Amino acid sequence: MTGLALAQGRIEVKQFARTRESLVFTLVFPAIILLIFGAIFSGDIDGISFKQYFAAGMIASGLMSSGFQNLAITIPIERDRGVLKRYRSTPMPKWVFFAGKIIQVGVIGFFATVILLVIGMFYGLDLPSSPEKWFTLLWVWLLGLTACTLLGIAFSAAARTGRSGPAVVTPIALILQFISGVFFPFTQLPHWMQQIAAFFPLKWICQGMRAAFLPDSFAASEPAGSFELGKVALILGAWCIVGLVASLLFFRWTTKRDG
User: Fold this and answer.
1) What is the C-alpha separation between 132 and 116, in angstroms, rounded?
2) By percentage, how much of the chain surpasses pLDDT 70?
3) Do the beta carbons of residue 185 and residue 53 sit within 8 Å?
4) pLDDT per residue over 83-139, tens digit each?
5) Which range of residues forms the domain containing residue 98?
6) Number of domains into which the chain is organized
7) Angle between helices 50-64 and 131-155 (to 10 degrees)
8) What is the C-alpha to C-alpha distance for residues 235 and 243, in angstroms, rounded to an integer?
9) Roughly how many angstroms between the first and final C-alpha of the chain, as a whole number?
10) What distances in angstroms separate CA 188 from CA 45, 194, 217, 225, 228, one per listed residue?
11) Contact by Cβ (8 Å): 151, 238
């Protein structure tokens, strides 16, 4: 069974690599944004370089692109082309299909993070300074990517056709990036905007990444006066459960016209 999942994962990764749109949205676009913003903006945020702050947010955003955007856009395309319908009619266990998607997201998420780290280091990004901060980076990365993956699978049902996927998903992703502290310091956003962002996982992924990449002294600049890592873990874990339940309830193998 493990061999089936790995084989399906290899197929998914190859298909992703051959799709220009997926490569652009998931890997190239976040890297370009980091390059542009890193070249334009300078200055400090409470004694921390804006580039250091921004790079942490972009790594969080890269996880959302690898999981949520990637799957919520590509799955409707596969459904529209009848790929999912053919998968369902084969003897292959259905979980293997999802295992392949999870493996694909893990591989793409890893490369997206590495690319953003390399670009960030070019601009002077300081890597986590202790084993504890590396551990924080690891568990935030895993929980964040898991939540985004499950939510991407669930939200793939929102697009009625393959063509409508980007139009449905991309605006949501951009809004979440703007209100979650990716492009701007979170505490400088209006209070009502902060409250809305707190309902969604990207805000907490960003906060966890700041805990990994920024010094402990920056915690005093967070809205609660600390990085709240326990709360970050709890909320991201809750979103993993929400994503799993929503995937079981809303995922569709066929379009409405197929019945």
Assistant:
1) 21
2) 97
3) yes
4) 888 888 888 888 888 898 999 999 999 999 998 888 888 777 788 888 999 999 999
5) 2-258
6) 1
7) 40
8) 12
9) 30
10) 10, 9, 18, 14, 19
11) no
Q: Provide long-range contacts, Cβ within 8 A and 24+ apart, for 243-246.
A: 243/146, 243/147, 243/149, 243/150, 243/151, 243/153, 243/154, 244/150, 246/150, 246/151, 246/154, 246/155
Backbone angles phi, psi at 45, to 5 degrees: -125, 105
User: Is 118 in contact with 38 (CB distance < 8 Å)?
Assistant: no
Tokens of 58: 């972009």
Bridge partner list, 48: 45
User: Tokens for 74?
Assistant: 């590509």
- Residue 71, token pair as written in the block: 């799957």
| Alpha-carbon span 173 to 178, nearest angstrom | 9
Q: Which of 73, 239, 213 is nearest to 142 (CA)?
A: 239
What is the pTM (predicted TM-score) of this model? 0.91
